[in-house]
TrEMBL record:
Domain Ketoreductase: 7-185
Similarity-based family: Belongs to the short-chain dehydrogenases/reductases (SDR) family.
Acetylation in keyword set: no
InterPro entries according to UniProt: KR_dom, NAD(P)-bd_dom_sf, Sc_DH/Rdtase_CS, SDR_fam
Name this protein carries in UniProt: 3-oxoacyl-[acyl-carrier protein] reductase
GO molecular function: oxidoreductase activity, acting on CH-OH group of donors
Pfam families assigned: adh_short_C2 (PF13561)
Keywords: Oxidoreductase
Superkingdom, natural source: Bacteria
Organism in which the protein naturally occurs: Faunimonas pinastri
């Protein structure tokens, strides 16, 4: 099923974790994939090589999404190297956990800069440049409903992403562009495992009635659906993908 033929998909934070799996899945769907990364060119190149080896099309693009100028340059570079972005997947994100009483201001600012402002920066470029039939998929988190202690600032950035999603969908009226968000539950990546004990991980696995962590491929499947023809009627929504944890 190569519905992405002749279309370019940009995956922010496509070099590792969930983003790398989304990049591979959309390449298999036929899209030419721009694999964005911030600090780790080796990982982005490895994803590009894997896609090309499987017969797909991909290239790596550097940009810290929190830097509006770098994001504008990245969109320009993608248009020159391939074509205008037809599918934007805002996946780049960072998570630091601490109770509100203990969270330091620098960490708070960094999460807002990458998760919220970073999403805003690419949405702004996409809203200005994207053509008819475009798809935008943002990344929230199931913590916006789970609301566990220590997730406050992180969950707040993701709740803001859900709000931007719903409002941009309405602002793009008449252009045949859908804007949605995916809200994964706990998913087996470096971001999730960092700082968690085996016991805590075992407990988190039991949160969902399906009694396992999500895999990056579980989330990539949802993104593929939203980016493809079968997802055409979903607009302005946040899809929670967490095995039933909430
Ligand atoms: P991850 O394994 O830590 O990967 C993060 C990716 O984001 C990397 O490719 C990283 O690239 C990139 N990135 C970080 N800061 C960036 C920046 N300023 N500009 C551009 N790229 C940047 O994380 P993950 O678990 O796959 O998470 C992906 C998304 O899903 C995030 O938005 C996260 O909040 C969300 N999410 C994850 C879970 C989970 O349990 N894993 C659950 C719900 C939601 P570099 O290596 O180059 O920095």
């Amino acid at each position: 099923m190569a519905h992405g033929q002749d279309k370019t998909a940009l995956i922010t934070g496509g070099s590792r974790g969930i983003g790398a799996e989304i990049a591979k899945r959309l390449a298999a769907d036929g899209f030419t994939v721009a694999v964005n990364y911030a600090s780790n060119p080796g990982s982005a190149d490895a994803v590009v090589k894997e896609i090309v080896a499987a017969g797909g099309k991909a290239f790596a693009v550097a940009a810290d999404v929190s830097d509006a100028k770098a994001v504008a340059t990245m969109f320009e570079s993608i248009a020159e190297q391939a074509s205008e972005v037809a599918v934007l997947v805002n996946n780049a994100g960072v998570m630091e956990l601490a109770p509100i009483a203990k969270m330091d201001a620098g960490t708070f600012d960094r999460m807002v800069a990458i998760n919220l402002k970073g999403t805003f920066n690419t949405l702004q470029e996409a809203a200005r440049r994207m053509g008819d039939g475009g798809r935008i998929i943002n990344t929230s988190s199931s913590v916006t409903k789970l609301r566990q202690p220590a997730y406050g600032p992180y969950a707040a950035t993701k709740a803001a992403v859900e709000t931007l999603t719903a409002i941009l969908a309405r602002e793009l009226r008449g252009r045949n562009i859908t804007v949605n968000a995916v809200a994964p539950g706990p998913t087996a990546t470096e971001l999730f495992f960092k700082g968690k004990s085996d016991e805590l991980i075992a407990n988190i696995k039991k949160m969902a009635p399906l009694e396992r962590l999500g895999e990056p491929s579980d989330i990539a499947s949802v993104v593929s659906f939203l980016a493809g023809p079968d997802g055409a009627w979903i607009n302005g929504q946040t899809l929670f993908a967490n095995g039933g944890a909430i």
